[in-house]
Amino acid sequence: MNSPRQILLTLAKVMIPLGIIAFLVSRVTPEQWESLSEHDKNYPLLASALFVAVGAISLSFIRWCLLVRCQGIDLTMLEAHRLGAICFLLNFVSAGSVGGDLFKAIFLAKRRPGRRVQAVASVVVDRGVGLYGLLLLASAAFVFQGNQLASGAESEDMQKIRFGCGVLVILGTVVLCLLVFGGAFVDRLVRRGARLPMIGPVVERVGPPLRMFHHHPLAFGMSILMSLGVHGLLTVSVYLIARSLYPSVPTFAEHFIIVPIGMLASALPITPAGLGLFEAAIEWLYQLIPSEPTLASGTLIALVFEIVKVIIAIIGTVFYWTAGDEVRESMEEAEHEAESH
């Protein structure tokens, strides 16, 4: 029998996303509703957006599998897709309970006892490579768009976004280069860090697994290319959704700035699956980025994209129902660990 605390937690998991959606819908202006309703919708284009998004998510599972193998942990592509689909589903459960990353790390640790740190390293690096791919994509779009973006009063905000992306890309590039190509210099830093008081034991355990990618530079480079592919396909999916709903939307190139930045906002662990953060960011960027003003609602387009992700997450329920004992035990352990924190 569920305890009152579990019942309240379940209700919160349901009510919070519903409340966020209701708030977002209330923010859509009458003009945007009118623009949406005054023309036919392109449903084949909408279906294409779903298939493109499925391809993007599948490519992200392949990327994670590659990084796991770099840590010396056996994982087949079929297992990676099964676990990835379940984790994608879990990311919609809550912002602070059993997230997909926690489940991945625990499952891999059970698969290879004594390699828990390596399992965590693969998950952390996968998340880092994903964020780095987003920044690269947005920065490349800024370069190609040049001075065609917003001007006047909005140009200051534009320059701040451009500068922020540039700084983060530089920092990310330096960190990744040190991680993969640092060689003996980084190894010496790890050994010195291991002798430091308090944080020494952590550095000693975490350093070597992260440095494991030094032995797999080609695979690591492929993971970055895959990250660009993942976010590029997701950007295409959002663009197809926009074109299926509205006749006039920001250009294809402008979406390659709008969507990656929106996804960076949704990566903050504040709401379930970034719900609300992504919509707010897309709505703001729809007003800021386009060189030609549009009546298209970034909020509605982002909400439809969330529905597409929910449809993909439903696939995760199929994998969950057919999961073996090892997967279910890992999920139970993840649940207990999340509750203990």
UniProtKB/TrEMBL annotation:
Domain of life: Bacteria
Transmembrane segments: 7-25, 45-66, 86-109, 129-149, 161-186, 218-241, 253-275, 295-321
Organism: Roseiconus lacunae
Location of this chain's protein in the cell: Cell membrane
Membrane topology qualifier: Multi-pass membrane protein
Assigned keywords, A-Z: Cell membrane, Membrane, Transmembrane, Transmembrane helix
Protein name per the record: Lysylphosphatidylglycerol synthase transmembrane domain-containing protein
Signal sequence, start to end: none
